[in-house]
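Pasting as-is:
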Amino acid sequence: MVRLKSYAKVNLALDILGKDEKSGYHFVDTVICEVMDLYDEIEITPSGKLTVETDIESLNNEDNLAYKAAKLIGAKAHIKIKKNIPLRSGLGGGSSNAASVLKALGVGKSEEELLKLASKLGMDVPIFILGGVCHATHYGESVERIKTDLELSIKITLQSRPQTTRDAYAKVDLSKVGKDRPKTAALIKALKENNLEGVIKNLHNDFETTSACLHHLSGSGPSYFELTQG
């Protein structure tokens, strides 16, 4: 049996740069940070067939991203997940689960191979292959690590009105977004220079244009977060 922690994430910066009508995905420029204090718990046990079990009945099926990840690897195992990251919270729980399963079952595969597999499962999955703090572009699947020595303390406030990423994007007025990319560049620079004040100053998220939000949203929301020195 293998036991894993599957971490949540927040978006320190998120720019929406338009929609690719052919694929249906939106182009983004985003900085994503794993949250070490909030995680799902995964147990993987060898089995004669592939199955998934969670404490949320609606996730116990072949549409579960963790199930799809194991199937992509060609593994036969029982995957048990204790869900602590709320569904549709903007915190990346499903994507994190998928990446955790890929890394656990894809022993021997290179990071590049795992990233390619992750991008087949969802645009947020690759960032969890790298972990830590990442810069993601294109649809979100093109990722690179950001080296920083900052220890960030992230306090998350969970909301009770979950929404899908699709619904969140449907509310976005594309004429009002994509204007803060200089702040994203400044935030990345601040991270590399271990400048907490510069990071906090440049936090932003284009989904905040769809509501009167007084806090920093994570991803498509509705959860928001505060950032301080760890």
